[in-house]
């Protein structure tokens, strides 16, 4: 699929809309990370991940009103791919959590972002037929490098068990699986319907964790479990827009550009940290923001 197929005619306009969709989804995902991240420290990662996905099965249900009936049949025919996608998502989450124990946040983010961008671009080229021109490859590289440099820092280094070699290997493995998963999701979004894919992916990723979670739930009154579920569902609401926009973008443009622009989530999260928590941004990050902004703007207007 040639990138920029959003609409016939002007390719520049198509890429502008595609990049804006990618950026908007990253803002929503960053909000999700901020809100659910707080709850993960309070309740535990598995509980938040499981109930987040299950709750999205309900809160994302309204988007299914835009899904034609035939798309359900197309997804049913491709259920093995969806099952593989859900399973890979669960494995990736476990690998990322393990890498977080062994690596500083910045190093882990840099490895994963670079791996996902490189892997998605390569696999998208071979499997989906997505191609990028040399200028796009350079601009994508600038975005990923800027995000990776912005992620560097002393984030919670005192809370990890430093094992750089093993941690880097685990993070790299996670990035490869995430890249492969992105290709599967892109294929589902393009061959079924992006909104249906977003709903099925998020709901399935939570549902698969319910079984392992139940024996680990704390002994609390039922009303307290309902309250915790409600808090998680509320925190995950930005994902309704985030996943919907992300899947629409994946169905319209090159997966390599989508993966590169996804790196801006680190930059957006840093902005939220500065606005809400008074965190210092620093000169290095401002330079990274500027470089990423120029590169993303270039991606938005370049013709394919």
Q: Can you tell me about this structure?
A:
The chain is mainly α and about 300 residues long. The chain is about 80% helix and about 0% strand. It contains 13 helices and no strands. It has helices at about 10-45, 45-60, 70-75, 80-100, 105-130, 135-150, 165-190, 195-215, 220-235, 240-250, 255-260, 265-275, 280-300. It is globular and about 55 Å long.
- Specify Rg, calculated over alpha carbons: 19 Å
Find the structural class using helix and strand composition.
mainly alpha
Looking at how many chains there are and whether they match, the oligomeric state comes to single chain
- Number of helices in the DSSP assignment: 13
Helix content: over 70%
Largest sheet: none
Beta strands, count: 0
Beta-strand residue fraction: under 5%
The topology string of helices and strands comes to HHHHHHHHHHHHH
Question: What is the approximate shape?
Answer: globular
How many separate domains? 1
Unreliable stretches covering 5 or more consecutive residues: 1-13, 154-158
Mean pLDDT: 82
Distance between the termini: 12 Å
Can you summarize this structure?
With 304 residues, this protein is mainly α. It has helices at residues 11-43, 45-59, 69-77, 79-102, 105-128, 134-151, 164-191, 194-213, 222-235, 238-252, 255-262, 264-277, 282-301. It is globular.
């Amino acid at each position: 699929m040639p990138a920029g197929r959003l609409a016939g005619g002007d390719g520049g306009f198509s890429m502008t809309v595609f990049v804006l969709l990618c950026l908007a989804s990253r803002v929503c995902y960053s909000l999700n990370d901020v809100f659910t991240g707080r709850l993960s420290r309070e309740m535990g990662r598995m509980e938040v991940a499981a109930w987040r996905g299950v709750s999205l099965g309900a809160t994302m249900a309204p988007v299914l009103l835009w899904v034609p009936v035939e798309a359900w049949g197309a997804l049913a025919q491709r259920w093995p791919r969806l099952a593989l996608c859900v399973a890979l998502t669960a494995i990736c989450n476990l690998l990322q959590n393990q890498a977080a124990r062994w690596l500083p946040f910045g190093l882990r983010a840099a490895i994963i972002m670079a791996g996902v961008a490189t892997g998605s671009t390569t696999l998208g080229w071979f499997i989906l037929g997505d191609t990028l021109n040399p200028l796009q490859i350079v601009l994508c590289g600038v975005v990923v490098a800027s995000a990776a440099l912005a992620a560097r820092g002393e984030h919670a280094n005192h809370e990890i068990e430093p094992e750089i070699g093993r941690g880097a290997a685990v993070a790299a493995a996670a990035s490869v699986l995430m890249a492969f998963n992105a290709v599967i999701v892109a294929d589902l979004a393009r061959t079924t319907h992006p909104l249906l894919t977003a709903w099925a992916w998020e709901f399935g990723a939570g549902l698969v964790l319910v079984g392992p979670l139940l024996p680990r739930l704390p002994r609390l009154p039922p009303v307290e479990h309902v309250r915790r579920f409600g808090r998680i569902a509320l925190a995950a609401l930005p994902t309704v827009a985030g996943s919907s926009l992300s899947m629409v973008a994946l169905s319209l443009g090159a997966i390599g550009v989508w993966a590169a622009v996804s790196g801006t989530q680190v930059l957006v999260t840093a902005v939220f940290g500065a606005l809400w928590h008074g965190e210092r941004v620093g000169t290095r990050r401002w330079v990274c923001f500027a470089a990423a902004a120029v590169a993303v703007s270039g991606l938005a207007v370049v013709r394919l």
